[in-house]
Amino acid sequence: MKALALETEIRIKKAFIDSINDHGLNRLTVTTLIKRAQINRSTFYSHYLDKYDLTEQLEKKLLDDFAALMEHRLEDSMTINLDKKMAVTAPIIQKCVNYVYQNFALIRALMGPNGDPSFEPRAKKIVTVAIEQALVHLKGNADMTPKLPAAFAKELIVSQIFDILKIWLAEPTPQQPDELADIIQVTRYLSPFDILNLQ
Q1: Whole-model pTM?
Q2: Residues 32-45: pLDDT tens digits?
Q3: What is the rounded CA–CA span in Å between residue 77 and residue 128?
Q4: pLDDT top residue among 6 and 163
Q5: Which of 150, 168, 158 is nearest to 74 (CA)?
Q6: Distance linking the first and last C-alpha atoms of the chain
Q7: Is there a contact between 181 and 94 (Cβ–Cβ < 8 Å)?
């Protein structure tokens, strides 16, 4: 396939996002996309097989970029505040939040109620694998607390982060990336009793 001009790529992406927000991914059509993007049908089909191929290409770029970010020093986020005296946001958290912010509209559409239900589980899998690899690097194994079955422990860690991201994505006036990164960092060290202010 031919290389896609940047301006055309931006228009298609915006049309894709607007169509999801207005009608949902399931009801998105190529006809709607080309009208919104103001491009020819032949232009669309010279770069994408169909709407599913477009969706997959956009999602793959996000997930590949995210996986590449998660390969760099994730273990630092697990040790940076071990003495409990520091309140330093790990660089990897900042980088990931910045990446989400740079792609805010697209990720919000994909993870929203009208988006792609398969996108979040794929992203969560990347985080889970990265956590396991970082644990092996730190201590030689990926074991988590013996107080919970492994599947529950992994889901608890990863889902909390994604739940915070989803709240952020849904906010009419989202916090700045630095603020959100700090919120995620703080939640790594709060128990439910701390959050409920019962201690």
Answers
A1: 0.89
A2: 999 999 999 999 99
A3: 14
A4: 163
A5: 158
A6: 61
A7: yes
* Residue whose token pair is 């709607």: 32
Q: What Å distances lie between residue 37 and 8, 15, 18, 130, CA to CA?
A: 8, 5, 10, 37
Would the pLDDT of 2 be above 80?
Answer: no
Q: What is the DSSP letter of 28?
A: -
* H helix runs in the chain, sequence order: 6-23, 30-37, 41-45, 51-70, 76-79, 91-102, 104-111, 119-139, 150-170, 177-187, 192-195
Q: Residue holding tokens 């992994």?
A: 154
**Which residue do the tokens 């409990």 mark?**
84
Task: Give the pair of three-digit tokens for residue 59.
Answer: 């999602």
- CA atoms of 32 and 17, how far apart (whole Å): 12
Question: Which residue is it, tokens 């520091």?
Answer: 86
Task: Compute the distance between CA of residue 161 and CA of residue 196 in angstroms, rounded to an integer.
Answer: 18
pLDDT tens, position by position, 108-161: 999 999 999 999 999 999 999 988 888 888 888 989 989 999 999 999 999 999
